[in-house]
Amino acid sequence: MQETIATLDHIRRSVPQIREELGVDPIPVGAIRDPAIYELEKERIFRKVWLKVATAWELPDPGDYKVKELPVADTSILIVRAKDGRIRAYHNVCTHRGNKVVPSKGFESFGRARANVVTCRFHGWVFGTDGALKSVPMEDAFGHLDKACLGLREIACDEWEGFVFVNFDPEPAQSLRDYLGDFATLFGGYPYRESTTAFRYSTVLKCNWKVALYAFSEGYHVPTIHAGSLPGFRGIEHSDFKLIGPHASSTIYGAGMDTAPSTGIFAGVLHGSDSHAPRPDLLPADINPKRRGDFQFELPNIFPNLLIHLASGCGYPGLSYFTHQFWPLDHGTTLWEGINYFRPAANAAEYAAQVHVNALHRNAWLEDTATMEDTFTGIMSGAIDDMQLMDQEFLIRHAALTLNSYLAGDKQ
Amino acid sequence: MTSTDPTLLPAAFADLAPLAARWARPTENERNAVRHAATAGEFAAFHDALLPRLDALLTYLRDCPPRPEDPAQRNALMLACAYAEAAPHHELYGGSSEVPFSFDARRFVADHGDEAL
């Protein structure tokens, strides 16, 4: 097997190197337990770093918009593809008296700005998708109104590989590309935008956001919590550790499991299709660089609250990649979002097979989420002061240490 | 033919009409509700009847668009999707309508949950 030329050797870590660099001591749970820490997280992390809020393919045409409620930033945002084709983000706040310009349902909703304008339903102020205040009913009655200064309040917004990020800092300390750093290289080049069939699930969990993030950030739990979903499971190898500034990554290789009869048939449909078959050749060169056949997916943690699991059809049949995101609603409440991405089905058989794979994975997520509220209750009880973390839980250790450095003001 | 009358199937699968009536629904949320109310015996009967026909059903669906407009094709897809989601309950979960040791599935919100096939 030909090895690709690795270009990111400086981010790779052996287990001894991880232990040396991050330590092996228990990690205090105070950052999870203390409501005051959450207030600091809002100020020093969620208002300072780049946060993924959309994908470009959710907003394919000029005028398409998404409204996302972000209690962690105490705001509602409007993400819109403007007339010039660029995606921009604004506070969804009318500059007249503060009403929400585009009303929304739930935590996110979608729409289309007809004629590239949005109109506040309160008094009819009209804003362009470029943010400019276009017209004001009875404008003369204001005496003086400087419309040029009353556009929608813009939020820094940029794209990486079609993932749309915002930064609430009026003057972000870093560009998105600089913030992502080597992560952008490690995960860059995969055709994410081709996988437009999305099955998105969400739920509100009664736990601190880091409890949910950490639960999805390691492979140690797989043989136990997923025993029901993984019959005849023969173990995993969680390795290829990488440290990337505030981000980190690792690889899940699988030793296989028994395939249920129905799964074997559905998988055959997807594996027999050029679009959905395992495509290790599409993986970026530094992910599974030896192109091992037992590669399942790359498991990264993009600080502070995003996981993009890149599989390229190698793990769950036909599954291109999946993402998790963890949005704090308050100290003890979290909106979890999990999205399975597939390439579009070419026929009804492929679609039914995707529904099967999606159901298997959704059910595994039901097993994952079962732990989170109990874990938070346990931590809040005061019975333990620390987490004990093993090597496969290094993403948690790294995220906790990164969080501490941001809270201490060492970053940004 | 409407989404509430899922029993018209392609001729080769006409004998599966009673199962279609019991399980086939156009949306994920409706299929979830059917599954949540099913017994181990019903999961077993569905599995035992469908698994031997799954290859043939998927071969038929390979010639159908992902969102068929033809009522019989659409019903065949609804039946396949219902089985796609029900099979793990028999094969992996011991006939339980819940995923064992799991979060309450009713608290999961699917964005696409009300989108009809």
Automatic annotation (TrEMBL), chain A:
Cofactor annotation: Fe cation
GO MF term set: 2 iron, 2 sulfur cluster binding; iron ion binding; oxidoreductase activity
Entry keyword ATP-binding: no
Rieske domain boundaries: 50-166
Keywords: 2Fe-2S, Iron, Iron-sulfur, Metal-binding, Oxidoreductase
Keyword Iron (UniProt): yes
A Pfam family reported for this protein in Swiss-Prot or TrEMBL: Ring_hydroxyl_A
PANTHER family: CHOLINE MONOOXYGENASE, CHLOROPLASTIC
Protein name: Nitrite reductase/ring-hydroxylating ferredoxin subunit
Species whose genome carries this gene: Sphingobium jiangsuense
Higher taxonomy: Bacteria, Pseudomonadati, Pseudomonadota, Alphaproteobacteria, Sphingomonadales
From TrEMBL, chain B:
Highest rank taxon of the organism: Bacteria
Protein name: Uncharacterized protein
